[in-house]
Amino acid sequence: MVKGLERYAEINAGNLPAKFQIAKRIPADKTDSLYDAHRDLKKEFLKCWKKVDASILEEKPADYSFLHLKVDLLNEMLKECVFCQRKCRVNRYERRGYCKTGAESYYSSEFLHFGEEPELVPSHTIFFNRCTFSCVFCQNWDIVCRDDTPVNPKELAYLIDIRRRQGSRNVNFVGGNPDQHAHTILEVLIHVNSSLPVVWNSNMYHSVELAGVIEDVIDLWLGDFKYGNDDCAAKYSNAGNYFETVTGNFLRAKKHGELLIRHLVMPGHVECCTERIVKWVSKNLGRDTRFNLMFQYWPAYRANEFPEISRRLNRGEIKQAIKVTSVHLDNLV
Ligand code: SF4
Q: For the residues 171-198, what does the mean pLDDT come to?
């Protein structure tokens, strides 16, 4: 069992329920006071979820549950969207914000992915369109720039159950990025029958407001930690106040679930990004944080407009990244 991912493993083994299955069994009242009702039920949920065992799965889900309430709340929040730290405050029923996502969600593909971290594969990966970042080196730009298949929540839930029977160890919501589709994803989960770990594979740039709603259904935060400072984040992803936002989200995620951090080493950014990130993670999340140091950077999309990142890593940078990471972290993928 991988250190730090013990609960994830127990859910997979059927010994513990996935959090969204607990949320589905907490009855809620339909109300216009969605924020108040959510706050009250959340207190109840936080007191009990760690003590709940798999026998809860034998109980019938509530007709209207804590999870339904979350979906209604997220749909309400769409009227003035603050799902991510950009906080566009647009009404997504009428127009699109920075992420170019309206109220409807689209995805590009779903399949059993065998290229993720060993403890995740096979991972049922669902690639949603659009993103809250605009990384100039985006390696998935083709799915970020367009809308492919509209999500039908019942149909996608059915596929998640089928993939589970085919051997998936989790459902992995990614993109693009999942945050701007949180309302749709939680609605999908209402219809999922299997109890399998929910993996939120994101840039960790979500807002505190969104975290308060989605953290009760996420078992594993698979978070990208891209930059060690705000200047690099602003330059390459047009993301303001990056470091404070992302570090705040990692700290909060650790309190509410389990963590696996990914860091893609970028050419010329070992000192300003890789080194600062691993030091922060070691000091604030622990030396034993599960950490995937990745070297597959290649200059995709518009990277050729930035000569300093318009190349692959050289051997010296790879060695330096491994060295600094090994000094500070013990639980490397
Ligand atoms: S998800 Fe973020 S970028 Fe998209 S509309 Fe909402 S606040 Fe704006």
A: 97
